[in-house]
TrEMBL record:
InterPro entries hit by this protein: DUF2483 (IPR018918)
Species in which this protein is naturally found: Staphylococcus equorum
Pfam families noted in UniProt: DUF2483
This protein's name: DUF2483 family protein
Length: 86
């Protein structure tokens, strides 16, 4: 029987509320320092602990949840040899 381990990672993506809803690609110290990109894959993933300075009235937050399941199987060398012979 395979033993599984599930890992969940949460990230936050900040995007414009109006217009093309471009995503922030950096951690701006001032609202005018923010850089944007239309593609979600280029967005800066934030953990929620970073300090960024944007005008929050003009932005929305996307929550991205990634779930990874890892399975482990244990075999003896004899079992592996049987598979190799098949």
């Amino acid at each position: 029987m395979a033993k599984g381990h599930k890992n969940e990672t949460v990230a936050y993506l900040i995007k414009e509320k109006e217009g093309k809803q471009r995503y922030i690609t950096n951690k701006p110290n001032h609202p005018e320092d923010a850089t944007y990109n239309i593609q979600r894959r280029n967005a800066r993933r934030l953990t929620g602990l970073e300090e960024i300075n944007v005008d929050w009235q003009d932005h929305l937050i996307d929550k991205e949840t990634t779930v990874t399941t890892t399975f482990y199987n244990t075999f003896s060398i004899e079992e592996l040899r049987e598979v190799d012979n098949d």
